[in-house]
Amino acid sequence: LDSVGIFPKNIKPDVVLLTQSPKINLDRMLLSLKPKIVIADGSNYKSLLTQWERSCKKQKIPFHATAEKGFYKLN
Are 16 and 29 in contact (CB under 8 A)? Predict the structure, then answer.
């Protein structure tokens, strides 16, 4: 998802990548898409990373912020 913040509701992705600080309700998106992991790249605001991490913890979905933890390798 990029800064536009529009996501299709009829897909079930394994990975959601957040980039350019999208203006979305992450809780609603997580309930709708049910991804296995959420990854936020370094282009996002730090304040949003904190909110997103809380949302992911609440729904027991792993969260990875590349700005804090470095790259994420997809297998």
Answer: yes
- Per DSSP, helices labelled H in the chain are 26-33, 46-58, 66-69
Phi then psi for residue 15, to 5 deg, are -125, 135
C-alpha–C-alpha distance, residues 52 and 74, integer Å? 20
Q: Residue 65's beta-bridge partner residues?
A: 40
Tokens of 8: 């299709």
Judge contact between 15 and 35, C-beta under 8 A: yes
Six-digit token string for 55: 């949302």
Single pTM value for the model? 0.87
22 half-sphere exposure, CB direction, 13 A CA radius: 18
Provide the residue type at 30 as one letter: L
- The label of the residue with tokens 């933890």 reads 69
13-28 confidence digits (pLDDT tens):
999 999 999 988 999 9
